[in-house]
Write a structure and sequence with these properties.
The chain has 1 helix and 6 strands; from the N terminus they run αββββββ. By secondary structure, the chain is mostly beta strands. The chain has a 6-stranded antiparallel β-barrel with strand order 1-2-3-6-5-4. The longest helix has 17 residues. The radius of gyration is 23 Å and the shape is globular.
């Protein structure tokens, strides 16, 4: 009687641990730049290779700077694209328009608040 209960408990724990992977988060692509990420030797000159780098803001709390792991022929992701992403160690994985992307997380920082609108100062004439 005890063996089936122990086996059931072990199976339940294994399923719980396996399902505890990274959780999906929502975010937006805020900005895009191309950065140098290596060189390629040509017959007479070195050619700089470029990687795409993006800033992704998660649900309004954290800005992640992410970069392609290596140069490749990859389409540009439009700005203000809403994404659902997962963080796994130092990688961010997400899909846009059916294409899967995997980027390296370069940095993360608290989201900067939008610039406060300047207040007009009206002189007080008395």
């Amino acid at each position: 009687m005890k063996k089936p209960l122990i086996l059931l408990a072990v199976l339940f724990l294994c399923v719980t641990v396996a399902a505890a992977g990274p959780k999906a988060q929502s975010g937006n692509i805020l900005s895009h730049t191309s950065v140098a990420c290596g060189t390629k030797k040509s017959k007479k000159q070195d050619i700089d290779l470029l990687c795409q780098q993006y800033v992704v803001r998660s649900a309004g709390t954290i800005d992640y700077t992410i970069r392609q792991p290596k140069p490749s022929e990859q389409s540009i992701i439009p700005l203000n694209t809403a994404i659902e992403f997962k963080l796994d160690n130092n990688k961010m994985k997400f899909k846009v328009e059916g294409k899967s992307f995997e980027f390296i997380v370069i940095s993360q920082a608290a989201a900067s608040s939008p610039a406060a609108a300047p207040t007009s100062s009206v002189p007080n004439h008395q």
